[in-house]
Structures are given as C-alpha cells and as structure tokens.
C-alpha cells in the first residue's frame, strides 16, 4: 500500500508537467504596484519630499523556456500614480511603462508546484505626466530610467494546459523632477523602487 501511495503521488506531481525546453508560457496577472519612494533633496527646493501612491492594474508576460529549468521572461504592463508632496500637496499624476526582462530559474518544471526566481533589467518610461504646483508651475520628469529587477514566484498546475500564478518583483526606478517655469531647474530625484505583487492565470503555446 505504501508503494502504491508513493507511486500515485509521483504520478500526480508529474502529470501536469509542461514547462519544458522550447515552451512559451503566457500569464495574465492583476498586479499591485507599491512604490517604496524616497527623495534625493539635492535640488532647488530644500526640505521638499515627494511620494508616489500605489496602483492596481493588469499585466501580461511571456516566458520562453531556454531549457527545462531556465527561462527568459518579458513583463509588459503600465500603471498611473498620484504624486503628492509635503509642501504643495497633490501635484497630479504620471503614467509609468516599465517593460522588464528577467532570466529565471525554474526549480521543478515537472511538478505540480513550480517555483522560480529571476533577475534582470527594467527600462521605465514616464509619460502622460500632468504635474503642476497650484496650476502655475509645470513639473517635468525624465522620460526613461534603467535599473535592476529581482523576481520570485510559482506556477501551480490546474490541469494539463492551465496554471495558477503568484509573483513578486522588486524594481529599481528613478527619475529627475524639474520645474519648467523655473528655467528647468532640478527639484530633486524621485526614487520609485516599487514592489510589484501579482496573482493570475497562465497557459502555454
């Protein structure tokens, strides 16, 4: 009986195996982008602090399995964040597009529970920024930022073709903030550095 139970357990663990070399895994997640903001105050307004609020948005990603254990994932999504300051209150919103590429290691590609870790690079584009101070001074942010990215998560098999996914990422993102009506004077550097928590569903093709 023990041998039969052990064989059945092994069969269950391997029945949903499909994360193999050459596969493309597609995941649709709902993510919460939670900025861990800090402010470099070496600018034109001493004592100024800036904060970016969190946002919940959809995200799509694709992983190409280079080997059974190693995959490359491209993460696509965009979020819009309210920006607040200690001196001027709410100053508007800015949209962020941070396509991120990570190289992953999948620990158990033939199991029902398939954890992975990853590391890579994010390129963040800031766009559609409507930032101003009291409607008088327009604020500008740099249009792009490069930074490292770390990732951990797991795929949990639902059946042969579908799986449940949980994922967390840490991105390092920063941008300079300047005031247009002060001759483009730099106010400081905003470090966004978000945690990105995701949950979703995936399949392969």
Automatic annotation (TrEMBL):
Pfam families: OmpW. GO terms for cellular component: cell outer membrane. The keyword Signal applies. Its main location: membrane. Keywords: Signal. Residues 1-19 form the signal peptide. It is found in: Cell outer membrane. The keyword Signal applies. GO terms for biological process: transmembrane transport. This is OmpW family outer membrane protein.
